[in-house]
Amino acid sequence: MATIWAIGELVKGAPTKLTLELATLARKLAETSGGTASAVLVGSGASAAGTEVATYVSTVLAADVDAALNDRPVAAVVAPRVAALIAQHKPDFVLVGASNDGKDIAGALVGLTDLPILYNGAAIDWHESAPRVEMSTFGGKLVTHSTFNGTRGIVVVRAASVTAEPAGSAGTVQAVTVDGVTELPAVKVVDSVAEAGAAAPIEEARIIVGGGRGVGSQEGFRMIEDLAEAMGGAVGATRAVVDAGWIGYSQQIGQTGKIVKPALYVACGISGAIQHKVGVQTAGTIVAINRDADAPIAEFADLFVVGDVFEIVPKLTEAIKARKAG
Amino acid sequence: MNIVVLLKAVPVVGTERLGGDLLTDRAVQLEANGNDEYLLEKALKLTEAHGGEVSVLTVGPAGATEALRKALAMGAARAIHVDDDGIRGSDTRATVAILAAALAKVSFDLAFVGADTSDGQGGVVGAAVAVRMNLPYLSYASEIEPSGDGVRIHRLSAAGYDVLESPMPAVVMGTQLLGAPRYPALRGIMQARAKPLDTWTVTDLGLDAAAVGTGAATTRTLDASKPPERAGATFVREPADIAVAQVVDFLTSRRLI
Ligand SMILES: Cc1cc2nc3c(=O)[nH]c(=O)nc-3n(C[C@H](O)[C@H](O)[C@H](O)COP(=O)(O)OP(=O)(O)OC[C@H]3O[C@@H](n4cnc5c(N)ncnc54)[C@H](O)[C@@H]3O)c2cc1C
Ligand SMILES: Nc1ncnc2c1ncn2[C@@H]1O[C@H](COP(=O)(O)O)[C@@H](O)[C@H]1O
After folding, report:
1. In degrees to the nearest 10, what's the CA dihedral of B79, B82, B83, B87?
2. How far apart (Å, rounded) are the C-alpha atoms in residues A137 and B80?
3. Does residue A275 contact residue A257 with C-beta atoms inside 8 Å?
């Protein structure tokens, strides 16, 4: 009878999509293992956010925290409270999302609880007495499955490793107070700076249009934005163009950027270097537009248009707009 | 300001493979983890501007020496190599314990870690080491600078960045936005030969040898296989108008638009 927890994440008081995926995953693992599943939300507004999460899992433990703590990094607030709840309730397995805050939380939890950890989970199922974690390793050359030797641990789960599906009946939200919290050493958030023109986030996008060095310039990147807008998608990029300053680092896909799993990735003027490939190789469908038919992206694209991005991309944007209008 | 950079030696990207025991084969040629080199570069720039020295610390097999020599050639003053046959197969908990024990023997104002590693992509070791050592942890830095007696960083956020401050010593995880690493100059390569490269064992760190390595691992790899091949690309070589129509048909058939 394993107890499985999903640690949620709140952004402006609302649960992220990844949180709903984790809640769904916890529920499914509990169903297969004959155990119980809960989601845990920590933050100001946790109880209020709990209602939505409770449509995915039978119990939500919500620890509301004083807004005065909002001047600390998210992980510094969440990790010590989750650690205290773990000490109190002793769940067997704890699922954490592979977002930036999620990885900070997971790392801090290892430091605080000394629990075993498996990360980079792209698919998770139940194997004997523990979760089995599928990972894509070495730039996608291998798929491995790992598990825990014991019956406790933390699993860091990537976005889109499972589809969020509401449960048959709504669960309950339990407000919990957390006792015995040992705060982490002080780090203060002294300012939050919004940068103009921040593009739509790529983590949860169903469609991503990526631009690489082949688009030529910052102005060239406009046509990528136009195509993304016509398709209702987000804009992605390679490191080369982020380094060139054509677009912000938040849009970078790959080893040092984000790992994404959209239903469709349109790669424009992107060679498909291994460090880029690792970020997007599990996309449902990949369309490449590149004038070099021998570019490495041919190895993992589904459709490869051999042509000039300056010619193809604007025409594709128009064709999609026309189709949507018609 | 003294900075220690935690630098992992990883198999050269593209050449990674698993051994028969399903552990990463680290007997192959190793190189410094690309993400750690951004931190090394920033550490060198900070000490050049504000004084102090840079040390690099790695936990890894004998083959890691080359990555350490390169770091010395780039400008680090000292390298520490925790090299012990017993470490092979260590899980994340053991790696964290070893790094924390080694750091406890080094005097530093800032410890730098990379965003993640090319052979593991965990991105969790830095936070765990910081918590274990009871030090402030600041992450996803695009800028790092001293501020009074402490450190101030820009941490990437969805909208832009947050400005974070903490006292020192502290652990800082940074990103590629810190700037591209320099290439070692010939002079640096010559000087590196005279710089100290210390080798420590698990016993030197006061750790129980039974608490690390394969025997103490709490996780295991069950199997490894080649991923299902993507079907392979269909090439479209028609003139632009026809090509675009084919793309639209393709996307429609897959219900993507
Ligand atoms: C440690 C490390 C980490 C890295 N992390 C990342 C990462 O996270 N993400 C990432 O993306 N990269 C990363 N890289 C860099 C990576 O190795 C590649 O250099 C980078 O992805 C290349 O970007 P690109 O495809 O835009 O450029 P290029 O490789 O220069 O490719 C440009 C492509 O555009 C095509 N092209 C040019 N003009 C046209 C045109 N008019 N019409 C059509 N096609 C055209 C060319 O045929 C070519 O294939 C990393 C590298 C290292 C060492
Ligand atoms: N064996 C190691 N030796 C030195 N530093 C390490 C080691 N493992 C991890 N690190 C540091 O921790 C960071 C994150 O590693 P990981 O959590 O494994 O992705 C790396 O970028 C390094 O800075």
Report:
1. -150
2. 28
3. no
| Under-50 pLDDT residues of chain B | none
Q: Angle at which helices A309-325 and B240-253 pack, to 10 degrees?
A: 50
Q: In chain A, helix, strand, coil percent, each to 5?
A: 35, 30, 40
Q: How many angstroms separate the alpha carbon of residue A241 from the centre of ligand 1?
A: 8
Q: Determine, for residues A107 and B136 on separate chains, whether the beta-carbon distance falls below 8 Å.
A: no
Residues of A in contact with B37 (CB under 8 A): none
Element (H, E) at A242: helix A239-243
Tokens of B230: 């993507």
Closest-approaching ligand to the CA atom of A279: 1
The rounded distance, in Å, linking the Cα atoms of B109 and B171 is 9
pLDDT tens for each residue of A94-133: 999 999 999 999 999 999 999 999 999 999 999 999 999 9
Q: What is the pTM of this model?
A: 0.93
**By the 8 A CB rule, do B36 and B5 touch?**
yes
What is the rounded CA–CA span in Å between residue B99 and residue B104? 9
Handedness of CA A151, B119, A258, A11 (dihedral sign): positive
Q: Go through chain B and tell me how many residues it has.
A: 257
Output the CA B92–ligand 2 centroid distance in Å: 10
HSE on the CB side for B122, CA within 13 Å?
24
CA dihedral B129, B130, B131, B133 (to 10 degrees): 80
The two beta strands, B170-174 and B137-147, are: parallel
DSSP 8-state assignment for residue A55: T
**ipTM over 0.90 threshold:** yes
Residue A242 clears pLDDT 90, i.e. is over it: yes
| Residues of chain B contacting A104 with CB distance shorter than 8 Å | 127, 137, 139
Alpha carbon of A248 to those of A104, A244, A319, B144: distances in Å?
A: 22, 10, 28, 18
Test B247 with A111 for CB contact under 8 angstroms: no
